[in-house]
TrEMBL record:
Protein name in the entry: RNA polymerase sigma-70 factor
GO biological process: DNA-templated transcription initiation
Organism: Nonomuraea diastatica
Domain RNA polymerase sigma factor 70 region 4 type: 105-156
GO molecular function: DNA binding; sigma factor activity
Length: 307
């Protein structure tokens, strides 16, 4: 097998490691490309390409994350990960587990960890690398990595129950949610939402925040129902789609351009959190992006005429 073939075979794994460390599709793709350039320039072939390349992409991602931390602290409004339509790395025996580790909820929990804790958790807990391999990847001793893993696991376990749910139940409830949403059925939406449901949006200051800081089943249900009819009337489309391994949707304008994405956190038969990503910079990897300001202005005009 050539070096190129070897790398391409491992590319899905490398991207999946980098995305979980960074929470950014574009930055993960850049980290994978940088890994290839370094591997191509390496004078010798490693004994294990998987261990070598996983360590390399992890170190690159850690460095990127450290520089990104300050930008995220100064970010306008809430910061959410870039939405991922499909994880390229597959393991049929662990598909549900891997999907949960790439969910918006899990990635936001990972944001609480230090870059080293995050890398150790991803390599060890998600992908099952041995501590010796993890130590080589992050440049720390095995005992230090074990300590980092304990701390990371403690942080993750503290919040994990919030996004665990039976997959079949989750998909069925999401189907009912989007049916009620498209019909503008306030009562149907309300019964699917937890009493303390929260709807939040990430615009980065570059798009309207129609989903920012709405709390409670009544308020969220009414807001969603009020928005959808005029949005569909102007040619908008709500396209249910798995997002970060969880139920979600892509909103498109009449030309098929992306307005925003939506993801649902479901637990105990109810929707706990709805997250909208509206920042155009975080949507470009999904396709052409709409002018969300123009879409919202037109939607609001239709709403006012209806009222």
């Amino acid at each position: 097998m050539t070096r190129t073939e070897e790398f391409e075979q491992l590319r899905p794994l490398l991207f999946s490691i980098a995305y979980r460390i960074l929470g950014s599709v574009s930055e993960a793709e850049d980290a994978v490309q940088e890994t290839w350039l370094r591997y191509e320039a390496c004078p010798t072939r490693p004994a294990s390409a998987k261990s070598f390349l996983s360590a390399m992409v992890s170190r690159i991602a850690i460095d990127v994350l450290r520089s990104a931390r300050m930008r995220r602290e100064e970010y306008a409004g809430q910061w959410f990960p870039e939405p991922l339509l499909a994880d390229p790395y597959e393991d049929p025996e662990r598909s549900a587990e891997l999907a949960d580790t790439v969910s918006m909820a899990a990635l936001l929990l990972l944001e609480r960890l230090s870059p080293l804790e995050r890398a150790v958790f991803v390599l060890r807990e998600v992908f099952g690398f041995r501590f010796g391999e993890v130590a080589a990847a992050i440049g720390r001793s095995e005992p230090a990595c074990r300590q980092l893993a304990v701390r990371a696991r403690r942080h993750m376990d503290a919040g994990r129950a919030r996004f665990e749910a039976d997959r079949r139940e989750r998909e069925e409830l999401a189907g009912r949610f989007f049916d009620a949403f498209r019909e503008g059925d306030v009562d149907g939406l309300r019964e699917l939402l937890a009493a303390d449901v929260q709807m939040a949006g990430d615009s980065g200051g570059k798009a309207p925040l129609w989903g920012d800081g709405v709390f409670g089943a009544e308020n969220v249900a009414r807001m969603l129902a009020a928005f959808v009819a005029p949005f569909i009337q102007i040619g908008g489309v709500v396209e249910p789609h798995e997002m970060n391994g969880q139920p979600g949707a892509i909103f498109r304008d009449r030309d098929g351009k992306i307005v925003n994405t939506l993801t649902l956190d479901i637990l105990d038969g109810q929707i706990q959190t709805i997250r909208a990503v509206i920042n155009p910079d975080k949507l470009r990897h999904l396709g052409p992006v709409a002018d969300a300001w123009a879409v919202v202005r037109e939607t609001n005009r239709v709403r006012r005429l209806k009222d």
